Amino acid sequence: MANARLELENQTIELPVVTGTMGEQAIDITNLRKDSGFITLDSGYQNTGSCKSSITYIDGDKGILKYRGVNIEDLAANARFTEVAYFLVHGRFATPEEKSEFSQQLTENSMLHEDMIRFFHSVPPTAHPMSILSTMVNAMSVFYPQYFVDENDGDRYNIMASRLISKIRTIAAFSYKRSIGEPLVYPRHDLPYCSNFLNMMFDSPVKPYQIDPETERLLNMMLIIHADHEQNCSTSTVRLVGSSKVNPYSSVCAGICALWGPLHGGANQEVIEMLDLIHREKLPIKSVIEKSKDKNSGFKLSGFGHRVYRNFDPRMKILKKEARSYLSTRGLNDPLMHIALELEEAALKDDYFIERKLYPNVDFYSGILYRAMGFPTEMFTVLFAMGRMPGWIAQWKEMHDSIPFKIGRPRQIYTGPTDAKYPGNQ
């Protein structure tokens, strides 16, 4: 094993170099404070590996994304979401028997406890669906108190995973129905995962919903490309909260809250709102590009750049192709799609964006697709959370299985007062 040497004052610290299966290398500083008295400072954890993981691999320079070694392009083109969910959660593709059993578990767990449904009637109709989603997922620990998972109790883990993956779509659909004042549509046992969700979302007494196979295929694909993405903000949150040995429902609830932010999953909603603003105010693309480069303009170009990808986001390439195809085959002339294509073309020709490697990310075209499929803007991040659920569960389980298991506890560099006094009664 190779070592790195760190020179600190009059001492030399030997630090092991860890190499991953794809050639990634990291300097292991686990014992740095014990050996030297020093810690490292890395704001935003941009250069810190918080764990070893066998779930997702990203090469940001080459635009590569793999789930357990399988390219995202292969999975998006050929798999169904429930297949990928099982693959992530259990670490292998299901056998025909396991696939049938998993499908049955998803069906059996699709209903919500009737007392949980009462919660929806006490929530203001103006509440954001992400707020409702996080609240209801956390409430699952009340209705299903047997939440602690022994790593040797595979049955309990399987039930917990199936429950979360299945019920999140029911909660999501019920949240939407509540917001528009329509009666809830209960899940059907004769429909597969995505068809069931689409029916719960869009079926109504006055206009029965006809499930479109192409829309179902597209939703499967979009959930797959969102299913996991290494140690992002929400996934790291699930791991950190879960490291206290709290129940998985509370851990996932924390992840949903983290995902909601505009710098994370909420960006897909911001992209659509930005494109709509450009359309309504008839802003020239050239002026939009110039405003985005001016820090004093107050304008932000959403959907460009990524913390990890410094070349292109492979998920964006898939979504761009699918958006063009879906809108074309349905004769949908969405002006926001035209604006998005113009923006991308202009940005990729601009030296400012080229030098900073600012390329469109997964959020840039996902909202356009969701919009074309009939989803309201406030549901975009909810759909992101639905897709990410298997990844959160897999990461939670992998963290619990790690040896040695440790509670997450980052350090800090204190910069406050050094000798303040209690003022007493004044």
From TrEMBL:
SUPFAM superfamilies: Citrate synthase
InterPro entries: Citrate_synth-like_lrg_a-sub, Citrate_synth-like_sm_a-sub, Citrate_synthase, Citrate_synthase_AS, Citrate_synthase_bac-typ, Citrate_synthase_sf, Citrate_synthase_typ-I
One term of GO molecular function: citrate synthase activity
Active site: 306, 363
GO biological process: tricarboxylic acid cycle
Pfam families, sorted: Citrate_synt
Coiled coil (residue ranges): none
Family annotation (CDD domains): EcCS_like
Xref: PROSITE patterns: CITRATE_SYNTHASE
Keyword Ion transport: no
Keywords carried by this UniProt record: Acyltransferase, Transferase, Tricarboxylic acid cycle
Catalytic activity: oxaloacetate + acetyl-CoA + H2O = citrate + CoA + H(+)
UniProt pathway: Carbohydrate metabolism; tricarboxylic acid cycle; isocitrate from oxaloacetate: step 1/2
Keyword match Acyltransferase: yes
Any one Gene Ontology cellular component term annotated for this protein: cytoplasm
Family assignment from sequence similarity: Belongs to the citrate synthase family.
Protein name: Citrate synthase
Organism the protein comes from: Oceanispirochaeta crateris
